[in-house]
Design brief:
This protein is about 45% helix and about 20% strand. By secondary structure, the protein is of the alpha/beta class. A five-stranded parallel sheet has the order 3-2-1-4-5, sandwiched between helices. The model has no long low-confidence stretch (mean pLDDT about 95). Bound molecules: 4'-phosphopantetheine. 4'-phosphopantetheine binds next to strand 1 and helix 4.
């Protein structure tokens, strides 16, 4: 049974993330979507909210678990008896950052591989920051994020 871990901030999940999860499930027996904190970013949603949105957005999928982690990603991956980290790649601009992280993780533990999955071409321009900016200014998020995410973003920005 091959288990892969797909880590990210998912603040919030976009259709690009869901697309990567669907593709990963075609390759691996089980995918654990792991919500973690990127020390360089201040999240808009709490970990609990991000998990709830991911669970709702992946209800149609089997063999998936949504979890959270703190501390080093490598330690979490090992604690789940996995050796595979999945990351989505959109444009070349993602590459250098992802390349550094994948290599660093491999230096720390040579038994762990990072597998990159290319996002559907419809979503190459999408990221959570752009989505939050669109939502803040009342832009339409139709087809860009799961329904629950659009609802939660609207709720959030109508309060602020
Ligand atoms: O969606 P993001 O913001 O690119 O996700 C980044 C995340 C959470 C996967 C990354 O920051 C992470 O792995 N954090 C855990 C701490 C860690 O292991 N850092 C070293 C990675 S080389």
């Amino acid at each position: 049974m091959r288990t892969a871990v797909y880590p990210g901030s998912f603040d919030p999940a976009t259709n690009g993330h869901i697309d990567v999860i669907e593709r990963a499930l075609k390759i691996f027996d089980r995918v654990i979507v792991a919500v973690g904190d990127n020390p360089g970013k201040k999240p808009l949603f709490t970990t609990k909210e991000r998990i709830a949105m991911l669970k709702e957005s992946t209800r149609h999928l089997k063999n998936i678990e949504v979890d959270s982690f703190s501390g080093l990603l490598i330690d979490y991956v090992k604690s789940k008896n996995s050796k595979i980290i999945i990351r989505g790649l959109r444009a070349v601009s993602d590459f250098e950052f992802e390349f550094q992280r994948a290599l660093l993780n491999r230096v720390v533990d040579s038994g762990i591989e990072t597998v990159f999955i290319m996002t559907n071409e419809h979503y190459v321009y999408l990221n959570s920051s752009i989505i939050k900016e669109m939502a803040m200014f009342g832009g339409s998020l139709n087809d860009l994020v799961p329904e629950i995410v659009e609802k939660k973003l609207k709720e959030h920005f109508s309060k602020t």
